[in-house]
Amino acid sequence: MKTLKTTTLIVALTLLSACEKKPTPPDTAQQSFFANLKTLCGQVFTGASTFPDDPEHDFAGKLLVADFSACEDQEIRIKFAVGEDHSRTWVVTESVKGLLLKHDHRHEDGTPDEVTNYGGWATDQGTDWLQYFAADEETAELIPAASTNVWMLKYEPSTQVLTYDLHRNELPRYQAQLKPQKLLR
Questions:
Q1: CA-CA-CA-CA dihedral for 140, 146, 147, 152, to nearest 10
Q2: Cα-atom radius of gyration of the chain, to the nearest Å?
Q3: I want to staple 120 with a disulfide (CB 3.0 to 4.6 A). Which of 10, 106, 113, 135 is the partner?
């Protein structure tokens, strides 16, 4: 009888230990980046395109505004305006797979644009303040020419510069730099 009680106790303790919450892995650079990006929530950044230096480019000469407008536990939404065009939002989502950057494009009435929800997953080459996002399959299907896209988001705490960058076929395609503004909401 004593052996049965001991065996039962051992089995019960083993089952209880299996139910314990497993320790979470240490923060990765992606998790740190997401946490750091969240510290920018509520801020508005303004700036301009820095590449290409082409007066014919769609964004040339236009004020760029990145508004960290909505921050949830697993999602940060950054409204990105180009001049009077407020159709863009960058969406950074944290998941068990890592960080995902998507570009949400909407018409004035709020309906999705035909070309929306493109972007990709963060690579393992980022840091606490910089992440690269390689085009995902959805992007390759939606915009075949963008299948090699790599977007970069970077914030430099010492200068307070937010940089958004795009490479395609390993060549620079676009870059913008923005600084925080003190705006009343």
A1: -120
A2: 22
A3: 135
Looking at residue 106, what DSSP letter applies? B
d(CA 178, CA 185): 19
Give the pTM: 0.83
Residue with token string 């960080």: 99
Give the tokens for residue 40.
């920018």
Kindly give the confidence (pLDDT) of every residue in the chain, 185 residues in length, as a single tens digit, with 9 standing for 90 and above. Answer: 555 454 444 444 444 444 444 344 446 999 999 999 999 999 999 999 999 989 888 999 999 999 999 999 999 999 999 999 999 999 999 999 999 999 999 999 999 999 999 999 999 999 999 999 999 999 999 999 999 999 999 999 999 999 999 999 999 999 999 999 965 44
Q: Measuring CA to CA, which residue among 132, 137, 175, 128 is closest to residue 151?
A: 132
Evaluate whether 120 touches 134 at the Cβ level (below 8 Å): yes
